[in-house]
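Researcher: Next entry: IS6 family transposase (Solidesulfovibrio aerotolerans).
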Amino acid sequence: MSTHPNPHFAGYRYPAEVISTAVWLYFRFPLSLRMVEEMLTARGITVSYETVRQWGLKFGRDIANTLRRRAPRRGDKWLLDEVVLAIGGKRQYLWRAVDKDGFVLDVLVQSRRDAKAAKRLLRKLLKRQGVEPRVLVTDKLKSYAAAKRETMPGVEHRQHKGLNNRAENSHQPTRRRGRQMKRFKSARQVQLFLSIHDPIANLFHLRRDHRPVADYRTARAQAFETWAKVAGARLAA
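Model: Predicted structure:
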């Protein structure tokens, strides 16, 4: 299936296109490992779900890191929100930041929902983005205001219920995946999974309702071209 062997996949039994497709299916759609196994089996590719999991960890992490480095500078309006996750019978909080177009900037799983936790998220955002936002939009949780005063005092802060709907909606894919995986098993698992999932989701976040069909198809084709370059192989036909 592969005309030009990729050294990144050397030593693996299956062609690069198969591995690339398995990783794409698992992180692009709310599928379980066993579902991906069955979809590959339908294409005549016999592989275990545990192999798919290992591919996802190894190649998915490399792909996500490269996509993150190649990503263009995001919008200067950051929207933040936090959601409760039940992990191992304990309450954890998933903090997430998106820009005005819905691209995920970063996530952080923490056991606390206070100013210290909010400050940790903001510092991580500043380190990764390299610049301060023009506007910070949050709900009325007082922890955001306290953290912002210390980390970015000159940034405009808008606090109002409903203004950060785009950030609230960005939690939906995580909730769907949590149900598919019969709940996440640990905070580390959530953090690791989302660190791979979100850059891939950003690549295919094309906002179909905001562009003509021709433009959307062109953008989608470009996304697949970028995937092929970053993953080192095209998707299997």
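Model: Note for the record: The chain has two domains: 7-70+206-231, 77-193.
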